[in-house]
Design goal:
The structure holds two protein chains of two kinds.
Chain A: E1 9-14, H1 24-35, E2 36-37, E3 42-48, H2 55-59, E4 63-69, E5 79-83, H3 86-92, H4 103-113, E6 119-125, H5 139-142, H6 145-158, E7 164-165, H7 180-185, H8 203-209
Parallel strand pairs in A: 1-3, 1-4, 4-6
Antiparallel strand pairs in A: 2-7, 5-6
Helix pairs in contact in A: 1-6, 3-4
Chain B: E1 2-4, E2 10-12, E3 16-21, E4 30-36, E5 42-49, H1 55-58, H2 67-71, H3 79-94, H4 100-126, H5 141-151, H6 160-175, H7 196-216, H8 218-224, H9 254-285, E6 300-302, E7 305-307, E8 318-320, E9 323-325, E10 344-347, E11 361-362, E12 380-381, E13 386-388, E14 400-403, H10 412-422, H11 425-438, H12 448-478, E15 498-507, E16 510-519, E17 522-529, H13 531-535, H14 547-552, H15 564-571, H16 577-580, E18 593-596
Antiparallel strand pairs in B: 1-2, 3-4, 3-18, 4-5, 6-9, 7-8, 10-11, 10-14, 12-13, 15-16, 16-17
Classes of the chains: A alpha/beta, B alpha+beta.
């Protein structure tokens, strides 16, 4: 097998932090910046729910490592690693997305334009709970962050990139007011802030209210 | 049954019912149902926001100086517009003024977002309603080159070889089986009218626009420190200016200002050489398809934006016009006061919320967001699998905002109709020029095509405004003013015990307002009334229909099972359901289900 030695790597977390386990990807890169020292050719980025805005970052990268909450139909909290051709297919499968120009379309667009990163790895976590607006990660998903990061370190090592303990300050992460601790501590009480939604799309909400 | 709405539309809910769910190529999730008669004409339309949005409630108790960061996460498109609206609302509440440079920089950022959104909307979300990329594979590159040179002589990329290359690239993409971005099209529907060469030309510009949009967002990276999710600041902008500095980090220096300047130039060129000529060329083939006007010929609303001077939002100081037109009377443009409790009110009689009593309207400062999901007795299907919704009861997660009781359309077309009616010089010249070029009467504006054309004109105008504010910024800096923020009232100890404020912007898709109440240094209530709430609103207690619903009426569908016409008109609003409502499709299936009953 040919050795993979990308010059520039993008480590991207995607998802919506306002929405329980949907924030998994973003919280992974946030944690990584606090616990791991990455070399200069690796860029950490909170991609949020952005679509085409992410295109320039893909163009700049030879390899892409993405963290995301993905519905694989597995036991909640399960981590799955996918590579290259499998990545877009899985990101589209039953993916709950706030936006039609989802990340799958971003990849398709990058391919059409001829600047999709040559290597792509997705580290996905099966969510426990998404239907909790204003909530944060569930324990089973939160507990997977260290494992997801260990997997990322192994993947980066296979690309010839050494990661050590430490920190990687980055401008490209969530605003401090949205950082995990501040976000969780500032949450309004349930009586003040309804956390659930439409019965049709939130079956457990229907159960609660029935 | 035939009914007459107070705002002048005739509805007939007999005949076939066509359900489109979800409507694709938009932000967020919506469902649309229409009734179609034997001639294929739409006689009734029902638009449902299928997501519940809870942003307002999660802001309760938080620091108002942080609200922008949360509102930026509402959706994947308007990040900056929500953030700007939010900081304006908080500044208004606390009486904070911003420096001149901050006003220029905010305007440049807001205009960049406007141009970015308009271009991306036209080429990547809307063009496929008019342009058939599969048909482009049959084009003759030489004839395409001739067409390009005819519609836009000054566009440099027009050789036959260039179009042949693009065509080969497309072929490869399509043959690889990953039609990808072009999937879900109705590519053999007779509603598509372009010859293959025009399809190839427009599809080529789809690719050119992708390259350009990457450049535009650099403006946000430069002034907002990063993108996506640029930084904003209550009191100004979070970037310092030091023209003598160097490098790509730290204070804004000449090198980065020059980059902004070159991006502004690129946008202006693209608007002039590509976007506007495309709208004229494509529009020329669809000149007889003047459906979709809906509310635009009756009632339109704009809050206005892009203030010439900091802290002055008076109507005559705004470059994007403010005003309200009702009942089609273009001779009278009413001023709009978003603080007046009698003007902007939201109703929920047909929305899945509860105000405790029927027929009640609430001004956003007193707004409530109490969800109440219930379905009407005429529903077909079950609670979890709705076949046909009952629009006589509650049927949407979108509230129904009204201006003095009137359902209003908002967006680029509304801004342009108001500007035209007010005699706004730039807008009037643009509109008259376009109508002359296309040999169309002014009534043609009130259409789907008019909405699409207004967006292109606005993109061009916004480019010029960007240049104006860039020059203003440079002059001011050269005169020795490098101030970008006012932090006098940063400390909550300087705030009153209670305060309320409102922020307004013109988002790409229309009038956007955030209303905030602050108590003891914390957010007590926060309400966003977003453009798609206006346009996508359900019926109100009087039975008035909203802009989406009105726009679909009387449209002829070529094939009811292929809702090209519905998508075309709904897309012309650039709907964004992500912030007007909240989450989501049951399984995220990308394919739209179209059911004809």
């Amino acid at each position: 097998m040919q050795e993979i030695r990308p010059e520039r790597v993008l480590v991207l977390g995607i998802g919506n932090v306002l929405w329980a386990d949907e924030g998994f990807g973003v919280r992974c890169v946030e944690t990584m910046s606090q616990t791991h020292a990455l070399p200069e050719n690796v860029r950490l980025l909170d991609g949020g729910t952005q679509g085409l805005y992410l295109l320039p970052f893909l163009e700049e990268a030879d390899a892409l490592l993405v963290f995301d909450a993905v519905d694989f139909g597995l036991t909640p909290g399960t981590l799955v690693t996918m590579r290259d051709g499998d990545v877009p297919a899985f990101m589209g499968a039953k993916k709950m997305s706030l936006h039609q120009t989802g990340f799958q379309d971003v990849i398709a667009t990058a391919q059409l334009m001829g600047y999709c990163p040559e290597h792509m790895t997705l580290i996905g976590c099966q969510p426990v709970e998404l239907e909790d607006y204003g909530g944060s990660l569930r324990p089973a998903v939160s507990a997977q962050i260290p494992h997801a990061l260990a997997e990322a370190v192994r993947e980066l090592a296979s690309w010839g990139i050494t990661v050590t303990e430490g920190a990687t300050p980055s401008n490209d992460l969530v605003d401090p007011s949205l950082a995990r601790d501040a976000y969780e501590q500032g949450r309004p009480a349930e009586d003040d802030a309804c956390r659930i939604g439409d019965y049709r799309f939130f079956p457990s909400a229907a159960k609660v209210r029935a | 049954m035939t009914t007459q709405t107070p705002n002048g539309f005739t509805l007939d809910n007999s005949g076939k019912r066509v359900v489109v769910d979800p409507v694709t190529r938009i932000e967020g999730h919506m469902r649309c149902e229409v009734n179609v008669n034997d001639e294929g004409i739409i006689t009734n339309a029902v638009s449902t926001g299928t997501m519940w949005r809870g942003l307002e409630v999660i802001l309760k108790g938080r620091d108002p100086r942080d609200a922008w960061a949360f509102t930026e996460r509402i959706c994947g498109v308007c990040t900056g517009t929500h953030a700007l609206t939010s900081v304006r609302a908080v500044e208004d509440a606390l009486g904070i003024t911003i420096p001149d440079n901050a006003n220029s920089i905010r305007n440049i950022m807001q205009l960049a977002l406007q141009i970015h959104d308009h271009i991306v909307h036209f080429y990547h979300l809307h063009a496929l309603d008019w342009v058939n990329p599969v048909n482009a594979l049959r084009a003759d590159p030489k004839a395409t080159s001739e067409l390009q040179q005819m519609v836009s002589p000054s566009h440099p990329m027009s050789s036959p070889g260039y179009f042949r290359d693009v065509q080969n690239r497309l072929k490869k993409f399509v043959e690889s089986g990953q039609l990808g971005l072009f999937k879900n099209g109705y590519w053999d529907n007779p509603a598509y009218l372009l010859p293959p060469e025009a399809d190839l030309m427009a599809t080529t510009h789809y690719l050119e626009a992708l390259d350009l949009q990457k450049e535009i967002v650099k403006v946000h990276t430069i002034f907002g420190g990063k993108n996506p999710h640029p930084n904003w600041l209550v009191g100004g902008v979070p970037c310092a200016i030091n023209v003598h500095g160097v490098g790509a980090v730290g204070a804004i220096n000449m090198e980065r200002l020059n980059l902004v300047s070159s991006i502004i130039d690129k946008c202006m060129e693209f608007n002039k050489n590509v976007y506007l000529p495309d709208v004229v060329a494509i529009g020329g083939f669809y000149k007889n398809w003047l459906y979709g006007g809906g509310l635009s010929s009756k009632s339109v609303l704009a809050y206005g934006d892009i203030p010439e001077h900091p802290n002055d939002f008076s109507a005559d100081q705004l470059h994007l016009p403010r005003g309200a037109i009702i009942n089609g009377n273009l001779n009278e443009v009413h001023d709009v006061d978003v603080r007046d409790p009698e003007q902007v009110q939201e109703f929920v009689d047909h929305s899945w919320y509860d105000y405790g009593e029927p027929g009640k309207g609430l001004h956003p400062w007193d707004g409530e967001t109490n969800p109440k999901f219930e379905l009407g007795p005429n529903l077909k299907g079950t609670r979890t699998h709705i076949e046909e919704i009952d629009e006589s009861a509650k049927y949407s997660w979108i509230k129904a905002p009204r201006w003095r009781g009137h359902a209003m359309e908002v967006g680029p077309l509304s801004r342009y109709i108001i500007g035209y009616a007010k005699g706004h010089e730039d807008i009037k010249n643009q509109v008259e020029g376009l109508l002359r070029t296309m040999d169309l009467p002014v009534e043609a504006l009130f259409s789907t095509l008019g909405r699409t054309a207004a967006r292109a004109l606005e993109s061009e105008y916004c480019g010029r405004l960007q240049k104006h504010f860039f020059d203003k910024l440079i002059t001011n800096i050269k005169n020795g003013d490098s101030s970008t923020a006012n932090v006098e009232k940063w400390d909550p100890k300087t705030w009153p015990k209670e305060a309320k404020g409102v922020g307004m912007t013109e988002a790409p898709r229309g009038a956007l307002g955030h209303w905030v109440r602050i108590k003891d240094g914390r957010i007590e209530n926060y309400q966003c009334v977003v453009p798609t709430t206006w346009n996508g609103s359900p019926r109100d207690s009087q039975g008035n229909i909203g802009a989406f619903e009105a726009s679909l009426l009387d449209t002829k569908m070529e094939r009811p099972e292929e809702p090209v016409e519905i998508l075309r008109t709904l897309h012309s609003f650039d709907p964004c359901l992500a912030c007007s409502t909240h989450v989501m499709s049951p399984d995220g299936a990308p394919l739209t289900t179209v059911k004809v009953r």
